[in-house]
Amino acid sequence: MSQKTITIMTPCYNEEENVLNVYNQVREVMVGIGKYEYEHLFIDNSSQDNTVAILKMIAADDPNVKIIVNSRNFGHIRSPIHALFQSRGDCVISIVADLQDPPPMIADMIREWENGAYCVLGIKRTSEENSLMFWLRKQYYRLAERLSSIETIQNYTGFGLYDRKVVELVRSFDDPYPYFRGMIAEIGLPTVKLLYDQPARKFGITKNNWYTLYDIGMLGIINHSKVPLRLATFAGFLGAGLSFVIALGYLLAKLLFWSTFTVGVAPMIIGLFFIQSLMLVFLGIMGEYVGAIYTQLQHRPYAVELERLNFDSGFGYPKPNPVALNGITSGNPLVAATANVPSPS
Predict the structure, then answer these.
(1) Where is the chain membrane-spanning (predicted)?
(2) CATH class of segment(s) 5-207+301-309
């Protein structure tokens, strides 16, 4: 029986300060394990800096490095799932380029996979990121857990190991805009959770903003829950009942105190604005579901590739020595690595 192979998958966008670091740290882990042939697949989402140039220099020195360059930025959901489906290993390990997913955990994940786990997931115990953001994320996970029709995975960002069977099951969903974390929970195969403390990003800036966080957050809710839609129905019944009670109270007050009681304009204006605001909120929620249906009907490709490199090479054992760009092997490679490298056009 042939030895199993491993794919390490790293999505990146404008990560020129980190890609050499993540490559070398992953390579060191695989050297330490020693017994697996592997490939390190980078998918670049049309970076505007020297990320692609640096990756090409790494790939020229190490055929285990495979590169996919997208024709444009396809977003933080479609690009990684495209890379997942291009992977060829018996298992796939997803790790981000900014090193907030600790590469040494790869060895622990592979060990659990050898023991029969189909998924080995990294679960954040603490984080060195902004404390407010970490708290908000935890509250979101709790809300999603309460609303979801399945048991979700809290404090899980996608960092983990996935057996080939899991990858093919994810492919079978045939979802053009997938919520990957929810898919893993939906599949429900034997899973091991490994706790870790998330370090802060050392180089570069995060590519997440309020829109991308809202996008993934709303996607996680509408893909696994009808509760928001039903809340709109319940709110409608509740509002109608409350309005009837208030109207009846005003009617009785007017009949009992005909000469002194006046309804006034303020209560009517406040009530009108409240009802209209509630309608807009639930109209927006229904719009999210309609938008999700529209995305499903479009069924566009996850990404369009501009080029790919080293896919004609198979898997290989890790290089014993790190790749050095202009003599730099660790730390911030930007100054030396990009000194004589033109920006990709």
Answers:
(1) 231-253, 265-290
(2) alpha beta
